Amino acid sequence: MKHYMVVVEHTPDECLRTMDELAYHTPELLEQFWFGGIAGEHKGWVIVDADSEQDALEKLPPALRENADVVPVRRYTAHSVRALHRMAA
Q: Sheet of 2-9: strands edge to edge?
């Protein structure tokens, strides 16, 4: 499985509806989300494990999928960064 950052963009007026959709359909996923509304950034972010971008998107309730972006992500260690430098040389 790969890791994907799922970003759900919404307006201030849609904020509670977005959280309600998650709470009703996928309460365990809601608990993993980070929301930026308190800073005026009306987006929610979550990292999920999935086999594909489409599988990651399908973890969301259907009503939220249209305004979501899915980005493959990975973590790096100092060791892996040094290895990338060696490969690039």
A: 34-36, 41-50, 2-9, 68-73
Where are the chain's structural domains? 2-88
Amino acid occupying residue 64: L
CA 28 to chain centre: 14
Q: Quick one: pLDDT band at residue 63, thresholds 50, 70, 90?
A: very high
Residue 27 burial (C-beta neighbours within 10 Å; 0-12, 13-18, 19+): exposed
* CATH code of the domain occupying 2-88: 3.30.70
Write the pLDDT tens digit of every residue in 24-53. 999 999 999 999 999 999 999 999 999 999
pTM: 0.88
Site of tokens 């260690």: 77
Burial of 56 (0-12, 13-18, 19+ CB in 10 A): buried
Tokens 């509670």 locate to 16
